[in-house]
Amino acid sequence: MKDLGTSSMVTIILAVLALLGAQAALWLSYFYAPVQITAGALFVVSPTPGVNTLNLYESYRIFFIHLPSAYATALCCGLCLVGGVMHLLSRSEKWDALTVSASEVGLLAGAITLLTGSFWADYAWGTGRIGSGWNWEPRLTTMLILWLAFAALLALRGAMPNVQARMKLTAVYGILVAPLYPLVQKAIEIGQVSHPRSFSDLLSAPEIGTTKQVATLGLLLAFGAAVALRYSANRLSFQLQKERAA
Known about the structure:
By secondary structure, the protein is mainly α.
């Protein structure tokens, strides 16, 4: 129970820092980042009163959610790997709880990554209709596979009544899920046409770099707090199950 108290304190600290980071990221996204982009270069333009300055690249602001969510998905893959390996070595339920928590949050982070990426794609290379930007290119498809892998892990775990077999399956599956994110990263190099290979040119303005760093830190703290919260809940659930079985 001491571990639960420690994880609760970590959750509170991460949640407070995440809230501050999210507020800073939102302010920077709307009031500090430039208002217009042209392909290959970014510059600040003073809007003319009464003139609509919205153009295709105004949609880049969604990257301040999309990119950190993708990084959070990668973090969850890493935590699944650590939790899976450590559980197989120690047979400790705390590592099983870590793998499950990372999978749950990875499912959420992956969904946000897919949705925000799809919304931007609808506007960037689609027709503007929802779903028109989804073209099954390698980056999009492998990210969907990763999301489905998180979902499959949780579904299979829930279908197994035996506790020890369930934890072993979770550990092995968590290890197998981890390499999928590097595959998502490498997918950009094979047959990718629509999805940008790099945002370094489009997002070259220093204001955008600063905003991206703050947003990344804030959202990673938020997802980290979510992992810590789910970890505490999963540990507590396991303790209650043991007490009821005793």
